[in-house]
Each structure stands twice: as C-alpha cells, then as structure tokens.
Amino acid sequence: MAFSIDHSLSDLTKLSLLPKPLGHASDMFPFRLSVFPRVHLSHRTSTSRLLSSLGSKVDPNGSVLIETTTPPSPSPDVTGGVQDVYGEDAATEDMPITPWSLSVASGYTLLRDPHHNKGLAFSQRERDAHYLRGLLPPTVISQDLQVKKMMHTLRHYQVPLQRYMAMMDLQETNERLFYKLLIEHVEELLPVVYTQLLPVVYTPTVGEACQKYGSIFLRPQGLFISLKEKGKILEVLRNWPEKNIQGMGIPVGKLSLYTALGGVRPSACLPVTIDVGTNNEKLLNDEFYIGLRQRRATGEEYSELMHEFMTAVKQNYGEKVVIQFEDFANHNAFDLLAKYGTTHLVFNDDIQGTASVVLAGLIGALRFVGGSLANHRFLFLGAGEAGTGIAELIALEISKKCQIPLEEARKNIWLVDSKGLIVSSRKESIQHFKKPWAHDHKPIKELVDAVKAIKPTVLIGTSGVGQTFTQEVVETMAELNEKPIILSLSNPTSQSECTAEQAYTWSKGRAIFASGSPFAPVEYEGKTFVPGQANNAYIFPGFGLGLIMSGTIRVHDDMLLAASEALAEQLKEEHYEKGMIFPPFRNIRKISARIAAKVAAKAYELGLATRLPQPKELEKCAESSMYSPSYHSYR
C-alpha cells in the first residue's frame, strides 16, 4: 500500500494510499459479500455458480452471504494491487465477468458505479441482462470512440480549471475510460502549452484546483483526518471502503499517474488529507473554505497527530504500506523522513523522487560531456527539499561508483540559498539539512559571482524564483564550459530559472538543457533542440510498482540509484541527436516496468523484499501486473 502526503496550497496535508498486494496466504483475510435481494438478477445461473464456488449460504433476511478464509490465489506472476477476489483482473479482455460491488450492479446503480460503468459502450446484450434499456440512448459506441470524443471535448475548454473538473468528473463516473484516456494520450502529458492532459490532472492546473478546492468541492474523494479525529485515526482508516479509492487535490494527479504510468490498480490507491489548520487569513475568512478553521498546529500537537497516523496506518494495512509524503515544509519533510524511514516504508517524492529523476538526466548528459559524475563540479541555486535531496543522491552515486567516503564526494557540490553561497562560516545559522554543504570558502552573495568563483560544469536551479539564471549567468557558464549542463527545474513556467530558448541562445546552442516545466523545441542556427523535462512522473510510478511487486518493507537509497540508472538506460542514439537527456514519454509504461524491475531486483539483493520466491523475469512480472483500463464484457 502507498500513501502520498502533501501540504498543498490550502494548507491541508494530503497523502495517497496504495494498499499492499495480497499475494500470499499470510496476507489474506476473511471476506463477506452480500447480494441484496432488491437487485434484479437476470444472470442467476452465473451468480449461483460463483456463489457455489466460494461456499455460500443464505442469511435469515434473504441476502446471500459468502464467507471464506481462502480467496482464490492470484497468479504468482501478478503481484500488483490488492487481492482480486472478484476475478476481474484475472480475466482476459474477451472473457465476460460479473460486475460485483457490494451487490451485483444493475440498472441505474450500474451506470453510477465508476468501476463498472461503460456509458454508451454497453452492448445490446448487456443492456438487456443488466436492466439498462431506456436508461441509455440506443447507440452503442466503442471505448476508443469515447476516448476520441472526450479528448475533443477537453480541447474545447478554454479554462484549465474546467478541464481539471471535467477529468475529475470522468474519474468519478467512468474509471476505466479515465485511465484509458491518460494512457493513450501519454505524449500529451508533457505539452508545449498547458492545454493538454497531464497539467489537467497534475501540475500546474492542480495548484489552482487546490487554491479553489472549497469552491469546486462536490463529492469527497478520499479520507479527511483533522485534529478533531485525534485519538480516532485507526477508526477513520477503517471507515474507507477498500474497493472504492480515488484521489484529491495534488494526490489525485499522483495517484492517477501511479495507475496510468505505473500500472498500479486504482483500487489500490487512497488519498488522505491531514488537516492541522492554517495560518492563511484569507482561507480562515473564506466562507467556502472546507478545512479546519483554526491556527496551524505545530510542535508536540503536530507530532502526536502524525505519529498516531503513522501507527494506525501500519496497524490497519500492515508492514508493506508505502507512505508517500508530498509537499511538506522543509523541516517537516526531512524530520518525518528521518523519523519513520527505519520503521515504515516511506518515500518523499519532493526529496527522493526529484533527486532520482535529475540524477538520471545527469547520467544521460555524460554522453555529451564525457567523463563520470566525479569529474564534474555542481552548483545549485536553491537549498530546500529538492536541492539538498538531489545533491545528496549525486554524492551517493559518486561515492558508490568511486568507492570514496560520502563526505569526500560532497566536496564538489555547492549550494546557494537566499543568503548566498552556503559556506562554513554560516554553519551555526543554517538549517541542519544544509550543513553537509557548508564548505570552506569566502561568503558570496550573488549567483553570478558564485559561478565565477566555483566554476561549475553543472548549474541546477531549484529556487522557485523565475529568471534567476540571467544572461550573464548563462554566458559565464558557456565561457567556462564547452557544453554547460543547465537544469532549470522550478515549476511552473513562470518560476523557471530560465527558458529553453534563453539557455540555447545565450550559450550559442552549446547548453545541455532540461527543465521542470515543459518547453517547446527550440530552433537555433538551423538545428532543432528538444529540451528535456525532469518530471518526477518518470520515476515514482515505476518506483512504487517495484516496491509493491516485491513486497519491500523499507526504501533504501540504492533503490533510488537503481531507478535513476534504469531511466538513463532508456536513452537511444536518436534521442542524443536531438540533445535529449530524458527518453520520450510515449513508452512510459515500458520505462516504468523497467524501473520497477530494477527497484525490485535491488530490494531482493538487499534482503528487503518479502515476495518469495523472486520471479525469474522481473520486467515481465512488472508488465503482467499492470492494470488495463480496457472494458470487460459483463455476463
């Protein structure tokens, strides 16, 4: 199971929860399924056969009850997601299945069940069998045509928030169509302008959705845990129906991409909002604000709530629940990762996910500049979660490859924060996570002066401040290096340290460039450069799948290194010819499967995997466990 925790713009903390797979008898549990007599069953023979196979009986009120301690065992090669007690995921696309919920879904109820609704794709036979006559127009259309129609509709919306709301509405009415849309239009996930798919469900549109969440809120899409639930968190977790898990705020994008890009089943995902109040006066006075109307909790009160949550998660879902922290303030992010990293399966995408994807880009960039990472000097603008996380993983990779102490590997990595270059004379006044980067040097205030003094070969921006890589800064990098590596990673586009066009133009076409926000290809002196996007979506879906399929119990830094190397391996000669340091997104599911296999292999190597025996072909195992959004035929 995996959680994604996120401090969004509304001051709510959000988590995404992915339940662990139930692949072994020790993970199974007794389950009880009721077929309520109020549901009309036209396929009684199929139902009886299913009930008979599971060992059923009828209770006094007429409901058919199924009780068993040994649900059907899944295929040993398929280990993603939760136990497939309904046989749905074991079925091939041409095999009919029974659309079970708490009851056999029929008629009006079936059309409002997002897990089984197919809209106009219900066949004539299915409409007869499930009492849908008259509830749908007479036309039957394919799922492919539904995808085409939905994309046509999305492209006609002028306001990004409208597209976001349309996609969220689709997710809540037709889950499989929602994910088929995402999967089949994956190359539109990184658009030239924010009018296509990924920004609709992820960033930056989701930032506006978070800001206006109270105004656009219609239906709950996850668990809400606030200080009012303190002492009752385990009870709250048990309130969530296992087969109906969707998304909220920023985590809705994360969880959608876990499924679309990583193949983790949507029923294995749960977003959780932890609300500890807000200090935002505008929100406190907003009549539409749906969060806790009190000042933000800190210190012991905050720590106690988080500890109760972490304890309850492990108690309710077990040792293999992956808890993904998202958008925490720097001090909380590092403290929580350090505190629970040895007791829980935790992952911080801002610190670890960002670091892993950037490291992959740097490994890819070595093809252009030669040598190893140890031959380069790195300068960061920004020393928060992202900057220090990337710096640490680079140092770790250098330490492993060169077999030198980590402290030695850090010496060629320098960071600049809002007060200037981080140097040893500032050590007493800086936050603890910046101290490893306080090297001996005279203080320097301006970035351009730091570039001239440090002479970096790699310049990385994680400052969140736009246009800080000025023309003088870029030109200085180009004077110092034949092929300067410039990574402008801040989001959104307005906060990018420089644009792709600026980087290529000011370096006279010599820069190796990638960004956090998408930029269009750039023409310079007759050559087309395709800027890469260092998007975490390259890493976290496959990383999460690797943890789930191996039953890993702890995240280890070596797994992040393995994910980086797996991503860099996907670069081909044709990509290098265009100046790319990240592979295109069109093969993202194949990339995610490769990353999952490498992460799982490292988990087995480190003795942290519990799914035994280890599959012989991990990549094929990853591919076979991926969720398919294609419609099933119903009996």
List the helices and strands and how they pair.
Elements: E1 2-7, E2 12-17, E3 31-35, H1 44-54, E4 56-58, E5 64-68, E6 96-97, H2 107-111, H3 124-129, H4 143-156, H5 160-173, H6 175-184, H7 197-201, H8 205-211, H9 213-216, E7 223-226, H10 233-238, H11 249-260, E8 270-275, H12 281-284, H13 299-317, E9 322-326, H14 330-340, E10 345-348, H15 349-369, E11 378-381, H16 385-402, H17 406-409, E12 413-417, E13 420-421, H18 447-454, E14 458-461, H19 471-480, E15 485-488, H20 500-506, E16 512-515, E17 522-524, E18 527-529, E19 532-533, H21 540-550, H22 557-568, H23 573-576, H24 588-606, H25 618-624, E20 633-634
Parallel strand pairs: 1-9, 6-20, 7-8, 9-10, 11-12, 11-14, 14-15, 15-16, 16-19
Antiparallel strand pairs: 1-2, 2-8, 3-5, 4-5, 12-13, 17-18
Helix pairs in contact: 4-6, 5-6, 6-11, 11-21, 15-16, 15-22, 18-19, 21-24, 22-24, 24-25
Cofactor: Mn(2+); Mg(2+)
Family: Belongs to the malic enzymes family.
Pfam families: malic (PF00390), Malic_M (PF03949)
Describe the 3D structure.
α11 crosses α21 (540-550), α15 (349-369) crosses α16 and α22 runs antiparallel to α24. A seven-stranded mixed beta sheet has the order 13-12-11-14-15-16-19, with helices on both faces. The protein is built from 25 helices and 20 strands. The chain is globular, with a radius of gyration of 25 Å. By secondary structure, the protein is of the alpha/beta class. The protein is 39% helix and 12% strand. Among the domains are: 103-135, no CATH class; 142-215, Hemocyanin, N-terminal domain; 352-534, Rossmann fold, CATH 3.40.50.720; 538-625, Rossmann fold, CATH 3.40.50.
